[in-house]
């Protein structure tokens, strides 16, 4: 197999969808090897609104892929680092004030990528390769730089926006429906494949621009700007050992001697600032190591790695080794051993870091209690974690799940209703709410919640089907019917707009 499923998905969906318009609508742009001048972005580029819509479409496909790392602790950690960077330079969000979304994909290859509209993905292999939090932050800052400078939209240049959206939708729809990812890869390897790759890869000018913006963000956020130098420097050295097989990150982000010299020259202007890695950096690396390959052999390899890591003297490494060993044991179905290793991690957390609470560790503790079929203990642990980390969406989900596991379905319904009022875009809340309604025998409400779950995932036909089922449920009240009518009108209008875009306006 040439690549993993995630690499196929990202390479094909992003590269081909973003470049297909150049190939089919305006071939003259395919030969352009440099970015267009900034000019009038409102006239010459994909508008910020449609850029976000394109990113939404691509993300729906990525989320449906099994190699999308849909893991709350990992996603929350990346979001924490990413949002710290954005808080240091709010103007990077652009005129639309994009709500950036940072996520991971399960792939051992070192790579990261920016999608239109503020979506930034990181391969699991890159997270594991980062030797400090500043190195990881430097990659995120660089990708933020690409989004802030609207490099993707600028590359598209002079395209009819409705044509771009409709064609991207068509391609992504075909990708999602395809039974074989190799079919999409075959298209990329066809006669136009080289032109597509050359057109999409960011030019050297764009890379220097992203470096400049990224370094400024790093400095303002208090990270070590030398992290970009050290990480890119290791990539450059690694590329010399690869001969013709250049690491993917360097293929999509060309790294030249001039560019490295420019980065080093810029960092020398900044006063040195030491940044201490957070506890979560080591814990998340341990978690990603397990999640990257949860096959029996992958878990054995991870266990051996954590055994070697436990022989180190650094407190963070020892803590991560205990945590990683606990997660491996849980994945292997040994809840008792998982609890023992986690108890060791908690003791080390208190001794070496003078704290008893950590969201990543507490989240695993809840999972272990649930796996051990101890719902009351899981609920108590989730309630305590919820109080300590009120903004953790992952722990909020675990608390709702623990309520249901403990037989407190009515309390779960009340809690989840409050949550969806506060976090209307949290898709998982609606799935949990549907489950809680089902346990209460509230069928109409169950299907109405499922409709919102599917709508947030971009599956409008499925959402409309759920509303139709809800309408026919015997317990649907007059008030429910009114809500169903209104929501159905809204979703049908969205669906009509979606179909119109797919047909090219």
Description:
The protein has 505 residues and is mainly α. It has 26 helices and 3 strands. A 3-stranded mixed β-sheet has the order 1-3-2. Helix 3 runs parallel beside helix 8, helix 20 packs antiparallel against helix 21 and helix 22 runs antiparallel to helix 23. The chain is globular, with a radius of gyration of 24 Å. 45% of the residues are buried. The N terminus is likely disordered.
Helical content, roughly?
55-70%
Task: Give the CA-based shape.
Answer: globular
Number of helices: 26
Percent strand: under 5%
Name the poorly predicted regions: 1-44, 158-202
C-alpha-based Rg, rounded: 24 Å
The largest sheet is: 3 strands, mixed
Q: Describe the strand arrangement of the main beta sheet, using strand numbers.
A: 1-3-2
For the termini, the CA-CA separation is: 39 Å
List descriptors.
3% strand; 26 helices; mainly alpha; globular; single chain; three-stranded mixed sheet; disordered N terminus; 3 strands; 505 residues
Briefly say what this structure is:
The chain has 505 residues and is mostly helical. It is built from 26 helices and 3 strands.
Write the layout of secondary structure elements.
Layout: H1 5-24, H2 41-44, H3 48-63, H4 72-88, E1 101-105, E2 112-115, E3 119-123, H5 124-129, H6 133-148, H7 151-156, H8 161-177, H9 181-188, H10 193-200, H11 204-221, H12 226-242, H13 248-252, H14 257-268, H15 279-292, H16 296-309, H17 315-331, H18 335-353, H19 359-371, H20 375-388, H21 393-405, H22 409-422, H23 427-439, H24 443-456, H25 460-472, H26 478-502
Parallel strand pairs: 1-3
Antiparallel strand pairs: 2-3
């Amino acid at each position: 197999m040439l690549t993993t499923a995630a690499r196929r998905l990202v390479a094909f969906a992003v590269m081909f969808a973003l470049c297909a318009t150049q190939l089919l609508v305006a071939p003259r742009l395919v030969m352009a090897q440099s970015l267009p001048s900034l000019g009038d972005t409102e006239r010459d580029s994909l508008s910020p609104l449609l850029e976000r819509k394109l990113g939404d479409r691509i993300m729906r496909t990525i989320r449906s892929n099994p190699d999308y790392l849909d893991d709350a602790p990992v996603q929350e950690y990346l979001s924490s680092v990413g949002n710290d960077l954005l808080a240091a330079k709010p103007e990077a969000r652009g005129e639309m004030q994009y709500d950036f979304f940072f996520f991971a994909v399960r792939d051992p290859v070192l790579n990261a990528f920016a999608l239109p509209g503020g979506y930034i993905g990181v391969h699991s292999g890159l997270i594991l390769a980062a030797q400090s939090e500043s190195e990881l932050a430097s990659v995120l800052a660089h990708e933020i730089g690409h989004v802030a400078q609207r490099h993707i939209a600028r590359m598209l240049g002079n395209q009819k926006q409705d044509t771009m959206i409709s064609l991207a939708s068509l391609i992504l729809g075909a990708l999602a429906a395809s039974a074989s990812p190799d079919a999409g890869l075959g298209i990329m390897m066809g006669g136009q494949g080289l032109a597509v790759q050359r057109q999409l890869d960011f030019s050297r000018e764009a890379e220097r621009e992203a470096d400049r913006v990224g370094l400024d963000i790093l400095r303002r956020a208090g990270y070590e700007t030398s992290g970009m130098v050290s990480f890119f420097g290791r990539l450059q050295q690694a590329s010399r050992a690869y001969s013709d097989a250049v690491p993917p990150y360097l293929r999509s982000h060309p790294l030249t001697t001039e560019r490295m010299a420019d980065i080093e020259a810029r960092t020398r202007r900044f006063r040195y600032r030491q940044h201490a890695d957070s506890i979560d950096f080591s814990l998340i690396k341990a978690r990603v190591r397990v999640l990257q390959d949860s096959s029996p052999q992958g878990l054995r390899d991870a266990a051996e790695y954590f055994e070697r890591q436990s022989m180190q003297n650094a407190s963070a490494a020892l803590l991560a080794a205990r945590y990683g060993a606990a997660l491996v044991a849980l994945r292997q179905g040994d809840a008792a051993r998982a609890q023992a290793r986690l108890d060791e991690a908690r003791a080390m957390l208190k001794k070496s870091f003078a704290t008893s609470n950590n969201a990543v560790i507490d989240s695993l503790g809840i999972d272990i209690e649930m796996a051990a079929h101890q719902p009351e203990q899981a609920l108590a642990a989730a309630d305590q974690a919820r109080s300590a980390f009120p903004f953790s969406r992952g722990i909020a989900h675990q608390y709702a799940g623990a309520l249901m596991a403990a037989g407190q379905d009515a309390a779960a319904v009340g809690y989840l209703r409050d949550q969806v009022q506060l976090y209307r875009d949290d898709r998982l809340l609606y799935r949990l709410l549907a489950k809680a309604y089902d346990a209460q025998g509230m069928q109409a409400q169950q299907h109405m919640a499922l409709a919102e779950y599917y709508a947030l995932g971009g599956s409008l036909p499925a959402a409309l089907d759920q509303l139709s089922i809800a309408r026919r449920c015997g317990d649907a009240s007059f008030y429910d019917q009114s809500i169903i009518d209104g929501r159905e009108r809204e979703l049908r209008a969205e669906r009509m707009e979606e179909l119109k875009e797919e047909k090219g306006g």
